Amino acid sequence: MPKINTLTKSSCHIKIPLTYFTKNHVGSMYFGVLLIGVDLCCGLLALHLIKKSNYKIGIIFKDVRASFIKRAENAVRFECNKGSEIREMINETIQTNERVSKSIKVSAFDIKTNECVVEYEIGLSIKYKSKM
Question: Per residue in 47-92, pLDDT tens?
């Protein structure tokens, strides 16, 4: 079960434990679980900022690039510290009424060693719909 460690206007940190359900046949975290972590981390930060804006804004992910640095053999902490970039995207879509897309960086760290295990760039795309 993912756990939100931090959710502020500037960052979101999520922890996913390594358990029977998240561990693959070689003892590291499943590829799919690692992708869920990046989706949750960036998505929750974006939704948190959208809610604070008091505007109805749609969100989708267009693509993801991942660099796997090391096997995730323990619980993993996902960090997205790009709140200011996402706020700029929100302001731009409200002002222009156009879809705004940008690659947002998210990193995943081994909880025990604090080493980066995966670096992501996830394509966040948002579109202004209306005032709430």
Answer: 999 999 999 999 999 999 999 999 999 999 999 999 999 999 999 9
* Rounded CA separation 41/83 (Å): 11
Token digits of residue 77:
């902490």
In the prediction, which pLDDT does 131 show?
Answer: 74
Q: How far is CA 81 from the centre of its chain?
A: 9
Compute CA distances 27 → 24, 54, 60, whole Å.
5, 44, 32
Q: Tokens 């804004």 label which residue?
A: 57
Each residue's pLDDT tens digit, 31-58:
999 999 999 999 999 999 999 999 999 9
- Dihedral pair phi/psi, residue 128, rounded to 5°: -65, 135
What is the spatial distance between Cα 89 and Cα 93, in angstroms, rounded to a whole number? 6
Nearest to 123 by CA among 99, 105, 111: 105
3-state secondary structure of 79: strand
